[in-house]
Amino acid sequence: MNCKYFGECGSCTLHNFSYEEQLNHKIQREKERFKAFTTSDFDIIKSNDSHFRNRAEFRIWKNFDEHNNPTLSYAMNDFNKKALEIDSCEIIYNDIDLLMPQLLDAIQNSDELKNRLFAVEFLSSTTQDMLVTLIYHRKLDEAWELAARLLEKSLAIKVIGRARKQKIVLSQDYIQEELTINKDPFYFEYKEGGFTQPNTGVNIQMIEWVLNHMDAKEDLCELYCGGGNFTIPLSKKFNKVLATEISKTSIKSAKRNCELNNINNIDFIRMSAEEFVDALNEVREFNRLKEINLKEYHFSTIFVDPPRAGLDDLTRKLVCDYEQIIYISCNPETLARDLEHITQSHTVEHFALFDQFAYTQHIECGVILKLK
Fold first, then answer.
1. Does the N terminus or the C terminus of the chain have fewer Cβ atoms within 10 A?
2. Which of 186, 192, 188, 185 lies closest to 170 in space, CA to CA?
3. Do residue 289 and residue 320 come from a single domain?
């Protein structure tokens, strides 16, 4: 990757490696970590080596002249946690990279837009839909809104203003995305502030990897479903799907994404994994389940994509009751801990590494296990 800030910007921690070298470094590390669970070769899902990230956040840095007039620039932390002024970024989508100087020039020329501006967030899609969130350390008023509407129109973007206890949406607070997965189109709306996979190319390959390696029969149970990123494509392969998620925003997005794809075999429930375990074991009754009869489901597969903390004790025990377990992990350390328990009853059939965050130490994993 040809980035002029490589080695200075603290975002890319593996700056002294080529793309293939940094990937091989992570592969060897994870082979050592998981050698007790599988001796098979990993399936390796590579990222593009540049312009792969569909979202970004930059601080706004201000330099003042002798008349106290500010000149704005974007900034990231360097390796000493100090501000590094930048004017481009090689890991973000080309659309974002091209917009960055145009946006900054427009803000620089508007007293209302630059006044106490603290940070800028970008969210983009493969359909060239662009959402920009401007974050302030002041209350936003009608004058700001007027200036922001002019900005939105002139750059053909969607603009949101945020300040303490304020969120001003000028047109829409989401972008539209179309993913082609195994040659089939799927449609999504990604909400500002909601969770989205940051590397669209790898995300598509992750979903395809699951679809191409799992056994699909009867019904699917999914925990930590988010906005339906995996749920919706996988639903095409199962009779019925029951998916849980604790975030109200994500559940709302998941239901909307079902509508966009004309899918009607998924029930989404807003509850934590721990609550769902209690519901399945009839420990507690939940009003959220009053229209759902859990006994009508015939689950053959459970799909989990937990946060970095991995599975809690009850959920770790629950997944072992299923014939097939699909585990997507954003933290290899907690995955290894969970596999210590799960592999007592299940065998690892397939294992993949997903390089979502190229040039960093981070890598994600996918494991498909079958009951022994």
1. C
2. 192
3. yes
User: Which residues are paired to 101 by β-bridges?
Assistant: none
**Residues making up the chain, counted from first to last:** 372
Domain CATH number, residue 109: 2.40.50.1070
Q: Give me the active site residues, please.
A: 330
pLDDT tens for each residue of 79-100: 998 999 999 999 999 999 999 9
Q: Would the pLDDT of 1 be above 80? A: no
Task: Give ∠ CA 142-101-124 in degrees, rounded to 5.
Answer: 75
Instruction: Tell the residue number behind the tokens 């990897």, with chain if given.
Output: 209
User: Binding site annotation covers 305?
Assistant: yes
What range defines the domain where residue 324 resides?
A: 19-49+195-371
Q: Which residue's structure tokens are 């296990």?
A: 369
Q: Can you tell me the distance from the alpha carbon of 298 to that of 208, in angstroms, rounded to the nearest whole number?
A: 24
Establish whether 224 is an annotated binding residue: yes
What is the Cα–Cα distance from 198 to 201, expressed in whole angstroms?
Answer: 9
pTM over the 0.85 mark: yes
Is 5 annotated in some ligand binding site? no
Parallel, antiparallel or unpaired: strands 117-124 and 130-136: antiparallel
- Given 111, 143, 174, which residue is the final one in a domain? 174
Query: Within 10 A of 36 (CB to CB), how many other CB atoms are there?
Result: 11
d(CA 93, CA 83): 22
